Amino acid sequence: DPAEDVSSLFRGLTTISELGENLKIVSSLLKTGDSGHNKKKMLVAMVTTCAHWMLAGMSVGEFYIVLYDREPAEENSKIKYKELLKVFVELKEQIHDTIEKKQKEKQEYNFDFYMTYNNKEKQYATDFFDVLKVRAPSVRVFDKHELLVEGETWQDGMFEHIKSSRKIVHFLSSPFLEAKECIEQFNISYCLNHKTHTLLAPLFLDNTASLPNYIKSIQWYNCQQYSKEKLADAAQKIYKVFAQEMMFPREISGVTKSPTKYDVFISYSHQDSSTMEKVCSTLVPSKLTVFLDRDRLRTGHQWQQTLYNSLENSTFVICLLSNNYLASSVCREELSLAIAATKAGGKSYVVFLQIEKGKLSLPQNMSQFKLLQLEEVLRDVKFAKFRDQVSMVSEAKTYINDTMFSENVHLLRNVNLKTGLKNARRAFFTQNEKEFGDLNRTVLSEVKKIVILNHGDDQNLALKAKEFLTQTSETALAISIQSKTDEKDLTTIIDNAEAYLVLISRKFLECEVCMTFLNLCLLYGRLSCIGKQLVAVIIGTETNQPIYPSLITNKFVATDEEWTNLDKSKKPLENCINAACYHMLKKKENNPMLNDKRRCMFVLPICE
Which of 349, 326, 325 lies closest to 338 in space, CA to CA? Predict the structure, then answer.
């Protein structure tokens, strides 16, 4: 069925939007070649559907359709496919006219909210709708359950309803993911969200393990262990955001080149939310700007990159230490990044505040630091004076230098970040030097499917890495982020990969698209407890902007002198990349990173 085949193709391609603008897609017209199927019908379906998705926001710059020919002489093919080529030209002209018309149309909103759900779970949407109606009786809600129109490759009615709505509320659940119409609705709104950045408002109702990776990367409202109270709270919060956006309309970007700067960043476990509220209300001076994920992470945005950028651009990072905190891989990454930011250049200060009585399961190399005890700070008269009088960050820094905060800061800055990380890499090299010295031998690898990510200017290095990896790996695919990939279903490739090799250059760090995809790899690595790993190679001069790529657990730096002496017949860069590839191919039992069930993607940058 051409309609079903084409619909499924573009349903799977949705997540390539994360890879940036103007991607190139190549697909055969008929996957089985010249086998008697209606070529014209399939061509019309593919071209018109692609045009609709591109207009919706899917980041496809070029879409190539390959015609199969057993005798592919150019003149013969032109004659053989004359009618198809004529149809193709006519389609392009129609699409061009449609685009011009659409660009002139004024955006109109017929609905404030559009709700998507599996019809088996309609009660959730009904409960949500009831709360909205109480809060705002005049709110316009599209709450009908729309099904796919059979035989249509593009769901035009569904698209128009979603496009003319200001907020799309998705009731994400296992039944939701099983319904094609729900996935179609999510993907349409997902693409449109790349233009507005304010459209998505997902609610999650059950176990996050079932979510596709591209949905996991988006901030949602947590309504697990469903209750009417939880749903009502989510509805109130979503309406509040909606009302603010109506009053103060603005262009909002999920990732910006110049992240917002904050005076204070609160790092905490959501299991300690009540204590966090107490800390914010009693300890943080009211005149300082505070980053709190509850308030600053916008639903529908890429949460992880916003989190990292905001932490690096905060003057004070207060880590609310508890056993809940230390058991969370995301919290431990925030802790690592806060320590690194303090060590990097003197612009940040990390504060270790223990909020739980008793002994904490601290990493061994944190034993040298003094932890502030929450109850003691609350009783400190000097601190109360500080809290009431501080109105500027400079005043807060003065207080820091007069208290036990300064002892921790001095310990952290005793060895700067680059030196400390380099010492750790030298120790790692010494431990593995014998194995790295014999990289030509066969590796018994359990890793079969690897994606190599690099900036387009570094494609040649990626191809050399691919050559090394394919000696033992079933598949190694190099994806160059400059519209040079010709794979038609990147979603499947990324999700099915067992490992990621990322070649990080200065241009890579300066490219928003590359950094977005690096964050997706970090997310996938943390969420996948078995079989996936991320190995990074710094292939240029190491930089502290941003900091977090330098903390990746499995990281190799080509400028380290160890790679110069490893194999003098090869350049240091080649030695470094080959060693990284070897490390990726090691058997699972020899790679402790793959056995960490609470996987933290960053090293803790503390030197004894």
Answer: 349
Kindly tell me if the per-residue pLDDT of 5 is higher than 50.
Answer: yes
Alpha-carbon distance 15 to 24, whole Å? 14
β strands within 355-405, DSSP E: 372-373
pLDDT in tens, 344-373: 766 778 888 899 888 888 887 787 788 888
For the chain, the C-alpha Rg in angstroms (whole number) is 27
What is the token pair recorded at 355?
């909020």
Q: Which of 516, 551, 596, 562 is nearest to 306 (CA)?
A: 516
Q: What CA dihedral angle connects 120, 168, 311 and 600, to 10 degrees?
A: 30
Cβ–Cβ under 8 Å, residues 6 and 53: no
Q: 10 Å Cβ neighbour count for 138?
A: 6
Identify whether the C-beta of residue 594 lies closer than 8 Å to the C-beta of residue 409: no
489 burial class (0-12, 13-18, 19+ CB within 10 angstroms)?
A: middle
3-class SS of residue 252: coil
pTM over 0.70, yes/no: no
Residue tagged 């996948």 (tokens): 528
Task: Report yes or no: 5 and 13 within 8 Å, Cβ to Cβ.
Answer: no
Return the top range by mean pLDDT from 191-200, 303-312, 375-384.
303-312
- Distance between CA atoms of 105 and 600, rounded to whole angstroms? 48
Residue owning tokens 């088996």: 120
Please provide the average confidence, as pLDDT, over all residues in the chain.
77
| Closest listed residue to residue 68, CA positions, set 43, 104, 86 | 43
